[in-house]
Amino acid sequence: MNAKHVYPIVGSVGVLAAVLFSGCAEVADLGSQLAQDAGVISASQAESINRSAHAIDKAQEQLTPEQEYYIGRAVAAKVFQTYPPMDQPQVNSYLNLLGQSLAIFSNRPETYGGYHFLLLDSDEINAFAAPGGLILVTRGMVGCCTNEDELAAVLAHEICHVEMKHGLHAIKQGRLTEALMVVAEESARQLGNEELQSLTDDFVDSVGDVVMTLTTKGYSRMQEHDADAAAVQLLRRAGYPEGAMITMLQRMDQRLASARGLGFAKTHPSAKSRADLLKATLTDSRFIPDASRQERFSVAMRSMPTNR
Amino acid sequence: MKSKLFIVLFMASACMVFAASMSVQVRSCKVRETPSQLGRVIGTLEYGTAVQAGVPQQGWYPVTMADGMKGWLHESALSKKTVAMRAGTTDVAVGVSSDEVALAGKGFNEQVEAKLKTDGVFDFTWVDRMMTFHVDPDQIRAFREQGRLPGGDQ
After folding, report:
1. CATH number at residue B52
2. Mind listing the pLDDT tens digit for each residue in A158-175?
3. 98-117 in chain B: CB under 8 A from chain A
4. What is the residue range of B28's domain?
């Protein structure tokens, strides 16, 4: 094969690779046409690639708040297999009052099932945002906060992950395509056993993708910084001092210094780098905890065992 | 007099032009008297309810409900897609588009979750309990007041 023939083929394959990784349907049409012209793929293969790329685009658009809700429920249920829920009515009630008071100020105050918060029985300093608004915070994370404003900063950060649908982005695109597009083309009747099994398998795999990101791989550095920046805006709108975000990150950095490679430290960029990046964007980083908020925070925390 | 009549007619026609049918895409949402999550609640709408929505203002749609009542809904509660019917029920309209079916909950839904429960893959006991952690608007208002939180500007 001479160079004259090789270049269009390499180019076409390159475009196709870009298409498959970007999931952009418009580029797919162009890329598959180029590859087909170069004789790399057949017409039917080109059509199949186009169909898949369009399906990926459509699947992302079609994931509705209700579907997100069911994914989030299963994600939370799977997280509970490793991090058991903590039956502490006083702390859970306080977390929900604080969290829901913040969530109404987010850019996405309404989700299918609403925002709900729960304490997890773990010393690990960590927090998880399941799609749709189920937010789970470990005892270690709550214990890392010394006042309500810092806890508000933690919850605001997790609310912003939900708002930006970061958990859903962790699902491998192919799964959504298969699960949603194939099913959507079926009639609206009750699913048969075979369809239900296939859909359930895709569902479990999708949930696995999200939980893997939440507990092991972590979000991308960019997603974490986006959530931090949005959390500062959210705190500001809700009336909390934005400087609480900085003190919370600094304290977390100190606590995590002895636990590098574990929990939150494993799944988040260093707290210090996050604090440094945020400082430049704050209009006012001064922060004095309010006495009335400090009082109710202390009352709520009294019932929480610190170590096990 | 003529000019006033013209303005009224113009405003009315403008409202008609901009009003669009939208559907509630969350399980339940509160209709507010003012465009604010702290605004007085004047009604509750369930998933799939159709409303006539006007021009949005800073994330809030002025809506008119089927009974003629007017209020405000946050954009995150609404979808431009029409919810035909909930999938899996016998009264699903024939010939709805795949978009409509998708919004009606086909795909990852309670049927899939029920299978996971039956197969013992996940235990949803605590998830269900979490869903009962409800905070009403009055509690939020009191919590903010007690905590001396300024603003509340959304």
Report:
1. 2.30.30.40
2. 999 999 999 988 888 777
3. 98-99, 101-113, 115-116
4. 2-79
